[in-house]
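Marked as duplicate of an earlier ticket. Keeping the data here for the record.
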Amino acid sequence: MRIDLHTHSTASDGTDTPAELVRNAASAGLDVVALTDHDTTRGHAEARAALPEGLTLVTGAELSCRLDGTPLHMLAYLFDPEEPELLRERELVRDDRVPRARGMVGKLQELGVPITWEQVARIAGDGSVGRPHIAEALVELGVVPTVSDAFTPEWLANDGRAYVEKHELDPFDAIRLVKAAGGVTVFAHPLAVKRGQCVPEAAIAELAAAGLDGIEADHMDHDPATRARLHGLAADLGLLATGSSDYHGSRKTCLLGEFTTDPEIYGEITRRATGAFPVPGAGGARS
């Protein structure tokens, strides 16, 4: 089985619609794909309706968190999307995205970049506006060559000149809320140092003690030595070690299935989940 547990659609900051994403996942030879848009489950219904035969959909979200001033992302799988407390927190994060993005546009303008809010809003479309949309605007303007090059201290990295904080969950609260909603939590790209400051390994151990289920070890932002280190850390802490592409369509260079999750790890994730269950494809609309 080929299992990719971290992808994004136009419901947040990907370029594939949810329907296109599941069709592209099937074309890429995946057996299982998780749709984990930022702080939203809005794309799940469309993905289900278009799910090709032979592909299983894992519903999820990537939750925006912050620990002692350091941003981090928490992948949440197979939770009940209507659980009230978790839903309220996701809405708080979502509602803060527009003022935060406007703030970053303002900072960029102060730095002499001829970016406009209208440009960013056009790029975001119906998605939850975020840094990748602003990064794409910088590419359009010729400020940086690629979206990834915008995520540096010079521009949009966590400690960058144009960075603006937003409402984010405490990760210990995120673990508690996702578990209460029947879901499973995996710390996304925990040592992606090129994105900015990362939380220390001691904090990962504290999160594990609080109920964290796993860490995303195999990821494009982890070099081979970091991936090996994270697999060892997962073994030491009794955590599940996952792998995934973090696919964003054409907005990033990663490909569907570039990294994958071991079927036994996937089986354990589904065993632990009680809030929702994987959706087997029955042959969705293909046009």
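See parent ticket for discussion. The CA atoms of residues 135 and 147 lie 5 Å apart.
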